[in-house]
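Comment thread on ticket #2218

A.B. wrote:
> Attaching the input chain for the structure job we discussed in standup.
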Amino acid sequence: MKTDQDKSREELIGELKELQGLLKDAEASETALKFAKIEAQGAHAYADNIIATMREPLLVLDADLKILSTNRSFYTTFKVTPEETVGKYVYDLGNRQWDIPRLRLLLESILPEKAHFDDFEVEHYFPAIGHKIMMLNARQIYQEEIGRRMILLAIEDITELRKLEREKRNIFSMFAHDMKNPLVSSEGFLARIISGKAGALTEKQQKYLSIILSELNKVSHLVSAFLEFSRFETREYKPVFASVDILSEIKKNIEAEKMEAEKKQITLSLESPDTAFSLIKVDAAMINRVIRNLLDNAIKHTDCGGFVTVGITDGGSELLVSVKDTGTGIPEDHLPYVFDAFYRVGGGSKGSGLGLAIARTIVELHGGKIWAESTPSEGSTFSFSLLKQ
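C.D. wrote:
> Ran it. Output below, let me know if you need it in another format.
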């Protein structure tokens, strides 16, 4: 091995330049790290400013569910201080007031599987601030610069909103209930007058009174539908589960609706299922209401000479029922709203606007799903699923 004395001048200069190059690379790396640190600090400050200005309470948790930061709205809403919050485990907040079973379900079971979740409702009583209903939205993110996962938990206090909704439903329900009795009385008296029990009528008088009675019947049906819908919405009705032959129930409903279908020369039929269906545990009266509502809806929106077909399919863990028509169809932008109460496609006057809303509520009470598919001018298919229990 050559010593420095043995090396030529050129070799020593070459080594010196190599060392200078390595030094410059080291300096450049150090500068880059400084800039990266500054950028990370800037990004962190930017994120903190966003969190601070949000009106809704927001928690930032680490993977162990320890609170990294929060905002002023959280402190003011839940009456806590930064010293009581930052660095604490979320369940330990306020003498473990936040050890809420549904919050645990969200953070420990749902988020690890889905990475995000929206509109998760939690109801809880806090000794310091009373009863609260909260809407939670959560996101699990990975922060590369620190190499760890974090959870963003946004909390919306919807206590007053839910209170107003309940009060509105109660007011409408009482109003509809108070309307029901005079409507029934009026219909009864009109029917007696039309039948001639209160004296003879001219042909024109009888015609006009018949129109009035028909309109009163429509109002009465609307009020009855609204009262029923209100009871479902307030969970006053609860399913009474029993074993039901669903195929037999569908056939009964088809037979019951055939007279209405024949008035419009509509062919109403059942697609022969490929497999035999066993009994399913449901509330028979409720599910019959769903089937009748879907059949009524299909017949109502199908032109003379059309077809309405009911199908039933074994989906393994669930049963699928569909009602397909060759009616006017539903525009794509209306589909998301067809199950909303009082919603009518195109603002039409057919029906109360509650039949599909009632159907959705009943299906959801059974733990199932209901949806619609449609092609304008070709027809629609309304389907619902029921879990096999």
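A.B. wrote:
> Thanks. Noting for the ticket: Confidence is low (pLDDT under 50) at residues 31-47.
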